[in-house]
Amino acid sequence: MIVLDQNIVNVALPAVQSGLGLSSENLVWVVNAYVIPFGGLLLLAGRLGDLIGRKAVFLTGIVLFSASSVLCGVAGSETSLIVSRFLQGMGGAVASACILGMVATVFSGRREQAQAIAAYSFASAGGGAVGPLLGGVLTEMLSWHWIFFINAPIGATLVLVGMRVIPGDRGEGMGKGTDFLGALLVTSGMMLLVYTVVDAERVGWGAARTLLLGPLSLLLLIGFVVRQATAARPLLPLSLFRSRSLAAANIVQFLMIAGMFGLLFFGTLYLQRVLRYGSLQAGLGFVPIAVVIAVVSLGLSTRLITKFGRRAMLLLGLALIVGAFVMLSFARVDGVYLVDFLPASLVMGLGFGLAAPAVMGLGMTAVSSAESGIASGLFNTTQQIGGALGLTVLSAFVSARTNSLIAAGTTEAEALVGGYHVAFLAAAGFTLTALIIGTGLLKATPPVGVEQQSTESPVQNAPAS
Q: What CATH number is given to the structural domain containing 267?
C-alpha cells in the first residue's frame, strides 16, 4: 500500500492539477510533501519500534497513513492537499520503518525468514510496478480522489487483522535509548537533505539555495554521527556498522535502488513520450515486470537461496539488472514494445526478484533482535535516499544529453531517446558498482538449509563480522 501510493500519484498529477487549479511550481509539492517526512523519519521510527514495541508503532503508522489518505482525497485546495500529503508521509515512514524488523523477529527459522523477506520484496517491487497502472485506471474510470481513498479500506483491514495476528512485543522501554538530540539532528538533517535533493531538480544544483541547504544538511548529519559516537544511549549505535555485511548490504541496496528508479521513471517516459502510449497503456506495459518479480520472489528465490546462499543470488541478480539496463540503452526512436522494452523488463524483473530478497536477508541477519527495528529503518532510509539521489542524478544526465542533441539539430524524439540511453547506461553503472562492492565486501554464505534448520532466531546466532 505504501509503495503503491508513492507511484500511483505520479500518473494522476495532471488530473490533480486540473481539479484543484495548482500551478506547475506547486504541483511538485504534491510529491515532495510526502517524500520529505518519509525519508526523514525512518531512522527515528525504526528506533521507536525497538523501544516502544514494533507492533504498536506499525499499527499507529497505518492509522495515520490511512486517515491522512482520506484527508488527501477530500482536499479542496492545494494547501490542504499538501499538508495532508505531509501527514501521509509521516504515517508511511512510521509504518514501514518497522516491517523488516518484525520479519526478522517474528519469522525465526532461516528458510521461513527467507520466504517472508521474499514476500516483502515482492510487495515493494510489485507496488512500484503496479502503481502507474492502478493510478491510470482509478483516474480515468473514477477520479483522482480515489487514488487516496483506496488506502482507507486497506488500512482498516490491516489494523483489524494486525491486532489479531501480529505477535505483541514490549520493546526495551524509552529509558533504554531516548537520545532526543540525536533524533532531532538526524530527522532535521534527513528532511533537509531530501528537500535539497528534490528541490535541486527544479531550481538547479548551482542555485544559491541548493549551495546553502546542501552543506547545512550534511553538517546536521555529521553532528548526528558525532553525537552517536559520544551519547550514552545512542539512537543509532555506530557499533552496527562493525558488521561488514550490514554496511555492504546497505550500500548495495542504495546503488541498486538508485538504478531501479531510472527504469520506473524513464521507462514510463519512453513509453509515453516516444512510443506515444497513454497513461493506462504505459501502466499495462509494466505488468510483465511485476508478474516476473512475483513469480521469482514468492517461489523461485527462496529455493535458490536455500540451495546456493544469499550472496550468490545477490550477485547473479545484480548481473542480470546490469544486462537489462544495457539492453534498454539500445531502445529505438521507432521502437516496438515487444522488442525494445519487454525483453529488458523481463530480465530486470528476474534480476530484481533474486537480488532484493538476498540483500535484505544479508543485512537483517547480521544484527541482533534488539536492534532489528533500527536496522529496518536504516534499510528503508537507504532505499529512499538512493531513489531520490539516483533519480536526480539521472535526470541531470538526461537533461544535459537531450539539450545537447536538440542544439545539434536532432528531432525531439531522437533527443529524448538519446537522453534516456544515457540514463539507462548510468543506471547500469550504479548497479555494476553495487555488484563490485558485493563481490568484494560480502562474505560467501552457505545455503540457508546448511546455515540453520532449527526454529532459533537467526539474528541471535549470527556470527560476528
A: 1.20.1250.20
What is the rounded CA–CA span in Å between residue 184 and residue 51? 17
Separation of alpha carbons 321 and 13, rounded Å: 29
**447 three-class SS:** coil
**Model confidence over 390-405: pLDDT tens digits?**
877 887 788 888 888 8
Length, in residues, of the chain: 465
Residue 194 belongs to some domain of the structure = no
10 Å Cβ neighbour count for 130? 21
Long-range contacts formed by 268-275: CB under 8 A, 24+ apart: 268/10, 268/132, 269/416, 269/420, 270/331, 270/341, 270/416, 270/417, 270/420, 271/337, 271/341, 273/413, 273/416, 274/331, 274/333, 274/335, 274/413, 274/416, 274/417, 274/420, 275/335, 275/337, 275/341
DSSP annotation of 297: I
Residue 211 belongs to some domain of the structure: no
Residue with cell 502503481: 131
Q: What is the pLDDT of residues 192-206, one digit of tens each?
A: 887 787 677 667 777
CA 42 to CA 101: how far, in whole Å?
12
Indicate the pTM of the whole model: 0.73
pLDDT tens-digit series, residues 225-235? 888 788 777 77
Q: Mind listing the pLDDT tens digit for each residue in 258-274? A: 888 777 778 877 887 88
Distance separating alpha carbons of residues 117 and 422, to the nearest angstrom: 33
Distance CA 411, CA 399 (A): 15
- Other CB atoms within 10 Å distance of the CB of residue 12: 24
pLDDT value for 330: 92
Over 80: is that where the pLDDT of 215 sits? Answer: yes
Q: Is residue 225 part of a domain?
A: no
Domain that holds residue 250: 2-178+233-461
